[in-house]
Amino acid sequence: MQPSLQHYHAILHSRAAVFSPFDTQYPELSARGQSIVASTGTRRQLLQTASVLAIGAVAWKLATFRALAAGQVAMPSAASFPVRHTDAEWHRMLSPAQFDVLREEGTEAPFSSPLNHFYSKGTYDCLGCNNPAYASETKFDSGTGWPSFWKPLPNAVIERQDGSMGMQRTEVHCARCASHLGHVFDDGPAPTGLRYCMNGVALSFKPAPGVKPPQGA
């Protein structure tokens, strides 16, 4: 168990009281006390150090608890993904807009994707590696301007905390090539209550037999 900040304060104050330089009954202890608390700057530094340690420990525990409670895991290293490319290779494979979203974690403009209002049967795959990410049966109109789904396909994506733009969000990445697809929010429809808000530029639609893909996709 980690000592609390109050514990550090109690120790420091008790030592200052016991080893008082004005204690005439115990001169030996008084002399020792002077050497321990003679420097106000040193005592203040101890208090500040204890405060930083305690606050840091609490912040770390809270962040860990939130991640575990949400079922989120830390982003694995790039070397652990089945599909890997160098930045130069990604640049050759993707358009500037695709690279910005998939590899730089950018966000496309709302209502800019032809996939936004497309509901034909098929799958929505990661554009970076053709990994099937979402089934058309889970797509819905969120009114946000981005293709939205209430559930990904099994083992298709991974999630991690995103603290950019002054807010806490949950990023969604392809589990096969680590490409950034979008974010997930907890304001979606039943049965999951989740809204996987995806960038259309990060997805490619693979139609079911007999289904035509949307123009421009």
From TrEMBL:
<comment type="similarity">
    <text>Belongs to the MsrB Met sulfoxide reductase family.</text>
</comment>
<dbReference type="GO" id="GO:0005737">
    <property type="term" value="C:cytoplasm"/>
</dbReference>
<protein>
    <recommendedName>
        <fullName>peptide-methionine (R)-S-oxide reductase</fullName>
        <ecNumber>1.8.4.12</ecNumber>
    </recommendedName>
</protein>
<dbReference type="GO" id="GO:0006979">
    <property type="term" value="P:response to oxidative stress"/>
</dbReference>
<dbReference type="InterPro" id="IPR002579">
    <property type="entry name" value="Met_Sox_Rdtase_MsrB_dom"/>
</dbReference>
<dbReference type="GO" id="GO:0033743">
    <property type="term" value="F:peptide-methionine (R)-S-oxide reductase activity"/>
</dbReference>
<keyword id="KW-0560">Oxidoreductase</keyword>
<feature type="domain" description="MsrB">
    <location>
        <begin position="87"/>
        <end position="208"/>
    </location>
</feature>
<keyword id="KW-0862">Zinc</keyword>
<keyword id="KW-0479">Metal-binding</keyword>
<dbReference type="InterPro" id="IPR011057">
    <property type="entry name" value="Mss4-like_sf"/>
</dbReference>
<dbReference type="GO" id="GO:0030091">
    <property type="term" value="P:protein repair"/>
</dbReference>
<dbReference type="Pfam" id="PF01641">
    <property type="entry name" value="SelR"/>
</dbReference>
<dbReference type="GO" id="GO:0046872">
    <property type="term" value="F:metal ion binding"/>
</dbReference>
<dbReference type="InterPro" id="IPR028427">
    <property type="entry name" value="Met_Sox_Rdtase_MsrB"/>
</dbReference>
